[in-house]
Amino acid sequence: MLEAFVIATILCGFFGIVFKKNLVMKIISMDVMSTGVIAYYVLIASREGLKTPILTEALDNAAGIAYADPVPQAVILTAIVIGFSIQALMLVGIMKLARDNPILEANEIERENTP
Amino acid sequence: MSRLTIGWVALPLFAGFAVYLIPRLARPLALAAALASAVYATLLFLREVPLSLGLLDRFGVTLLLDPLSGFFIFTNALVTAAVILYCWDTGKSAFFYTQLTILHGSVNAAFACADFMSLYVALEVISIAAFLLVAYPRSDCSIWVGLRYLFVSNTAMLFYLMGAVLVYQANHSFAYVGLSRAPLEAIALIFLGLLVKGGVFVAGLWLPLTHSESESPVSALLSGVVVKAGIYPLMRCALLLPEIDPMVRVFGVGTALLGVAYAVFEKDTKRLLAFSTISQLGFVLAAPEVGGFYALTHGMVKSSLFLLAGNLPSRSFKELQQVPIRRSLWIALAIASFSISGFPLLSGFGAKVLTMKSLLPWQVVGMNLAAVGTAIAFAKFIFLPHRQFPPDSQSQPLKPGFWAAMLVLLGGLVLANAVYYEAYTVENVVKPLLIIGIAWIAHKLIFRQANVKLPRTAEKFEHLIGGMSLMLILVFWMVFAWVAN
């Protein structure tokens, strides 16, 4: 059930990239899509347990507790940072483009800038 | 050796930041990083056993280095060094060299790693550095071309990430070998990401515009090595997992034919080169076990061709045919064109013979067709009019940096013959001559006059993203139909 919602989020984002005309909207759609992917990692990390993977008590007590898998969470942190920096970079690019094309329609910009 | 490896992976990244802090040392530092890679690749060739490193536990970073990665690393080193030499006296800022060095380092990392997560990080750093290089002139056009590249590659990498987590779920590790136990969706999603990133088949149609509208040194870098960062993992997977091999080979033939079909009708020099890159990547993929050598020769030849095309007086073949070009330029152009057509004495010949020998029977017709197409496309360069310019003529002389870059790349083409000197048998020599002969006749009779303009609709931004979804369906179908059995 949760998986279906996550996949739906990813697809919503993807279709947003295809169908939205405005460049800023396209970037927001891409953000939605990457949010979906991040949620998917978190979902898979919690397949075997929901507890925060931090050992607080002695190690021998910890054996029975169902911890969430820390690896996908650690890894997706890298992906979040990369996704964030790419989005920041794209928004800077779009600010530059907006000086000559204030409406930021992808089709218009493409027609003007492709030889 | 393992310490050396870690030092080598980290060096270009440190050098990149040092370049920005000490702008005066920008060019020597960048060049030193490239040379270090060349030395390291040579060490890899001399080593018999593949080097495999695992940092942390089974879920950590894994590196795998053997002669195959050595070929790719050497390509990267040569092309980067040539581009730095070319840019030596063009007044590029330290920022440009920073990005160049970081791009070099991340491409190296992509060639060294053997797990999907490190590959993801390397590919994303490549996207960012390549975007900054493409957008370096800061014009609206260059920013749009860069943005488009970043958009397409980032969307593809999101699909790739989904595939990577499915591999992890099945194996509790991100290593390439885990792909065989992963669910089939994982293979399809990861393939989509890599195919888009590597510019393969329909998913690679973002490539012509990006590579042709960038500045010449940047396009040389993009075509010479950056696309290979997407190709290399595909080859690596095909070698590790025999069930994926036929898929990679099919994409190889498809790409070779698609690229060449566009290239023979192209009227613009840089776009022709970009389409030819697509088709040459097909040659690399068509025979994964020997693709390393092909990738090396293609890297050298394509970057030299892009640098040469940047120095031609015009980009349109129609205009170039009216005004003769400088003879020295034409000689370099002809050497590179002959090598890519597979003419003996140049290493493109050895690479082509080796690839053709490793093909499966069903691939042979398609790849020979693609070889003829390549020769037709490059006949356009070989038959350009040329003449000797008097030394006191008005036109700008070519810069020494340009000739240094040509010396590295074209000299490399001649020297690399030594890698596969067994290719020189009568039978092997006659066949490429025959192919080139047929191609030149076809060029004279048909393609010279042909006035076909292929539509560019498939290259529009929205169609590229839409094409990605179609590609996803195709890859899913292929995986379920072939790998499942």
Tally of domains of chain B: 1
Question: Quaternary state, please?
Answer: heterodimer
| DSSP helix fraction of chain B | over 70%
Strand residues, percent of chain A: under 5%
- Main sheet strand line-up of chain B: 1-2
* End-to-end distance of chain B: 41 Å
Short overview:
The complex is a heterodimer of chains A (115) and B (485). Chain A has 115 residues and is an all-alpha fold.
List key phrases describing it.
heterodimer; A: 115 residues; mainly alpha; Helix Hairpins; 4 helices; B: 485 residues; two-stranded antiparallel ribbon; two-stranded parallel sheet; 72% helix; CPA3_antiporter_subunitC (chain A); cell membrane (chain A)
Structural features, described:
The complex is a heterodimer of chains A (115) and B (485). Chain A has 115 residues and is mainly alpha-helical. Chain A has a single domain (1-54, 65-113), classed as Orthogonal Bundle (Helix Hairpins). Chain A has helices at 2-19, 23-45, 70-98, 106-113. In chain A, helix 1 (2-19) runs antiparallel to helix 2 (23-45). The mean pLDDT of chain A is 87. Chain B is mainly α and 485 residues long. Chain B has one domain (1-389, 397-484). Chain B has 20 helices and four strands. Chain B has helices spanning 2-21, 26-46, 67-87, 94-112, 116-134, 140-171, 184-198, 207-213, 216-226, 228-240, 245-264, 269-286, 291-310, 317-322, 327-341, 347-357, 364-382, 400-415, 426-447, 461-483; strands at residues 51-54, 62-65, 325-326, 386-387. In chain B, the strands form two sheets. Chain B has a two-stranded antiparallel ribbon. Chain B has a two-stranded parallel sheet with strand order 3-4. In chain B, helix 5 (116-134) packs antiparallel against helix 6, helix 6 (140-171) crosses helix 8 (207-213) and helix 15 runs antiparallel to helix 17. In chain B, 59% of the residues are buried.
